[in-house]
Amino acid sequence: MAKQAAIIKGDGTGPELVNAMLHVLRSCNTQTELILCEAGSEQWEKYGGATYIPDSTMKLLEESNACFKGPTTTIPRPNAPRSVAVTIRQKFELYSNIRPIKTYDRLSPNKKLDFVCFREATEGLYSGIEFKISEEAAIAIRKITRKGCQRIVKSAFLWAKQHNLKKIFAITKRNILKETDGIFWMEVERAIKDNPGIDVEEYYIDNMTQQLVKNPERFNNSVLLSTNLFMDIISECASGNIGSIGNVYSANIGDSYAMFEPAHGSAPKYKGMDKVNPTAAILSGAWMAEYLGEPEIKNAIFKATEQVINEGKYVTYDLGGSASTSKMASAIAEIAMKNLKK
Prior knowledge:
Elements: E1 4-8, H1 14-27, E2 33-37, H2 41-47, H3 55-63, E3 66-69, H4 84-92, E4 96-102, E5 114-120, E6 130-134, E7 137-140, H5 146-162, E8 167-172, H6 180-194, E9 199-204, H7 205-214, E10 222-226, H8 228-239, E11 249-253, E12 258-262, H9 279-291, H10 295-311, H11 325-341
Parallel strand pairs: 1-2, 1-3, 3-12, 5-10, 8-9, 8-10
Antiparallel strand pairs: 4-5, 4-11, 6-7, 11-12
């Protein structure tokens, strides 16, 4: 029976990036049924509702084997709903937000990076427990649970073993956040005992950002692991080293479901201009293909994307070229198809 994936078109440049991703997947003859749906602030502004995700879309998500989320806009107003990504992560318990960081030869000739960021994605400051205590003050609660820490730590160590990585960097602010980061660190220590052969080093979040600017190569062939907000910041900082945030793809994986998405935002000022970099969307879609049982498609698309970026002929403005979104996607699709026929 064919697998089914819900495809959220998103806001701003989301629909054109989703079209680029779908063009590449369909060119590779994916057998997954790809069903388009709506979610995000643009449809919410039109139709309203308690969340950014309409009931029809939520039903489709529940019936699918996985989903892909195009970039969506989250309105920064107190009465606006929580983000589409946070809502889906919490509903389906997609506790592992994974963002690989890898350089391309043409974009970073003097810097070679290859590591992966593991972010707990269901709790922490994203729990949404926030309230005003007066007109002059408000409080946000950082909720950290042992279960949440166990899950993300276990998945990071499993990834390290599967990919033959011998080092994990655990990022905390344990000298200040003694209780919450204390629980997280206890679970890291427990995993160290259960996984001999994997070295673990603790970095404080403030020092970690400095190191990612000063000497990011020290993290090669390792897993960076942290709680929700800390790793959101760290993975974004790390992405500054690989040419463009438009290159950073990601997965949100739980025990029985997954959501794939580019790590960047919806860039509404470029909406409809066929201009933005489709790399992250295309690679996220390729990763979804692997998750749904088509690893050969993922491999073909990843190789094709690397070739197109390193050749530099059909790349978007942020990668030093002048190609449109759709032209770059077509170049990747063409090479990926050839890779599959070899």
